[in-house]
Amino acid sequence: MTQTAFIQDMESRREQARKHMMNGAVTEDFTQDRETIIKLLNEALATELICVLRYKTHYYTANGKGTKVAAAEFWEHAQEEQEHADQLAERIAQLGGTPNMNPETLTDNAHSDYHCGGDTLEMLKEDLIAERIAISSYRELIAYIGDKDPTTRRILEDLLAQEEEHADDLVDIIEHIAE
Ligand SMILES: [Fe+2]
Ligand SMILES: [Fe+2]
């Protein structure tokens, strides 16, 4: 781009910024993919909310071998999944979308399943499966977003790192119980 073209571009950018001021963080160059990103973020939000419910249920119903150490982990993960849900909801709202927390559609939109019942070891395994699903979903989502939306990508990268830690922690506890 020549210097003149860049300046012309800057002028139209200033004009657009002023014209649609009340769109806040959403600028004109970012309308095309925004709807898709909001939809995908809502699916991630549903997944996180289901994870909160699953971990809380596991915390309150843990029984059998390894319960003490597992219950502490279930509680910690429940809090962190709730933080993930809040980060996603905040970003959805920032992008002009509506965070979908409708209980009727949560399980349909979520990538991983709710689980209740069995002993602590079964719960740990179900949670590990759910974490692994979350990990591969976040990886795919990050790859899709690419350079389209750096802020959302950064948020998702942080969530992915924490889901990887969760999966790692669960493997450790399962190994510990199996000893
Ligand atoms: Fe999470
Ligand atoms: Fe997690």
Automatic annotation (TrEMBL):
Reaction(s) the record says it catalyses: Fe(2+)(in) = Fe(2+)(out)
Superkingdom in the source lineage: Bacteria
Any matching Pfam family: Ferritin
Chain residues that bind Fe cation: 48, 84, 131, 163, 166
Name the record gives this protein: ferroxidase
GO MF term (any one): ferric iron binding
Family: Belongs to the bacterioferritin family.
Keyword Metal-binding: yes
Main enzyme class: oxidoreductase
GO aspect biological process, one term: iron ion transport
Residues of the Ferritin-like diiron domain: 31-179
Keyword line: Iron, Iron storage, Metal-binding
Keyword Membrane included in the entry's annotation: no
GO cellular component terms, A-Z: cytosol
The enzyme's E.C. designation: 1.16.3.1
